[in-house]
Amino acid sequence: MSERKRIFSGMQPTGALTLGNYLGALKNWAQLQDEYDSIFCVVDLHALTIRREPARLRADSLSLLAQYIACGIDPEKNILFLQSHVSAHAELSWILNCYTYMGELGRMTQFKEKSARHQDNINAGLFTYPVLMAADILLYQTDLVPVGGDQKQHLELARDIAERFNGIYGDVFKVPEPYIPKVGARIMSLQEPTSKMSKSDENENAYITLLDPPDAVIRKFKRAVTDSEASVRFDQENKPGISNLMTIYSSVTGKTYDEIEREFEGKGYGDFKLAVGEAVVEALKPVQGRYNELMSSRDYLTEIARKGAETAEYLANKTLRKVYKKIGLVPRP
Ligand code: TRP
């Protein structure tokens, strides 16, 4: 066993990731890979809480794996796999359901939001979603979970479940901590810069995806909402649009806010928006190149998924067997 701390994270396969996913999460994950033992999962089982076209889910799952790698996550250094390939996730999830209270799940903000949004399909999976997430994390004796603000409550619940279980049966699970990266930009919507950039936004001008072609990227930045002051200056409160564009520009070019303010002193927003668009196009170019390459080498991609699942399964089953034994299930003869 290595001494390095273990990180687990996952994303749902729901199409192309956004620039926000990339600059806010994936780019940082790629920087963690030398320091930590990292496991990155395509959480395809989580995606079932919303009705999906089977062919679409299948395509999106491999596509997400390719996007992980294209963003710099090295399959040689990290474990990359699809959640449904390791049955221990579903199995532990059932067990943990029996150690989680209805009241706890009913308090989850995301459940309340999602059930309000999908009134016609408030299924039990939507309700127990955080338990499956707890299983994902606890199976691997995870030390750290990089999470955005919207997942913090779920991680808290995973910690509560782990502590409750350990309290009854002894130390079975490592209690995971949230990992809030020091860097890592919070990228906002281009149309409504006070809310997070999200691919579920109805207005597709509000977000950039990793797979957007250059002309779409430029067009969306040209249409980005700003203000009427006409000065490129960082002021999140009064100038959320411009500040967001500065954050994006800074993330992709490495320039500081001071440098950006100087660069665009006396220039109009049109020039600035175009510069941001062009810088993003440049940043996405190698990602898209690598992505296209991966998507046309299916065998390579499926081999990564196969190897990843094999390693993940070995680790997960160790925890699962311990759990089964502790709670009194008869070992399979
Ligand atoms: N629920 C997370 C989201 O929607 C995805 C996820 C599933 C996850 N399992 C996880 C994230 C485990 C971190 C760790 O973003």
Could you report the average pLDDT, rounded to the nearest whole number? 95
CATH architecture of the largest domain: 3-Layer(aba) Sandwich
Low-confidence stretches: none
Multimerization status = single chain
Please state the overall shape, judged from the principal axes of the Cα atoms: globular
At the third CATH level, what is the topology name of the largest domain? Rossmann fold
SSE order, as H and E? EHEHEHHHHEHEHHHHH
Number of domains: 2
Q: What is the CATH homology-level superfamily of the largest domain?
A: HUPs
The radius of gyration is 21 Å
- Strand element count: 5
Largest sheet: 3 strands, parallel
Structural write-up:
With about 325 residues, the protein is mostly helical. The protein folds into 2 domains: about 5-185 and about 300-325, Rossmann fold (3-Layer(aba) Sandwich); about 205-290, Orthogonal Bundle (Tyrosyl-Transfer RNA Synthetase). The chain has helices at about 20-30, 55-70, 90-95, 100-105, 110-115, 125-140, 150-170, 215-220, 240-255, 255-265, 270-295, 300-325, and strands at about 5-10, 35-40, 80, 145, 175-180. It has a 3-stranded parallel sheet. Strands 4-5 form a two-stranded parallel ribbon. The longest helix is centred in the last third of the chain and has 30 residues, at about 300-325. The radius of gyration is 21 Å and the shape is globular. The relative contact order is 0.14. The mean pLDDT is about 95. Tryptophan binds next to β1 and α6.
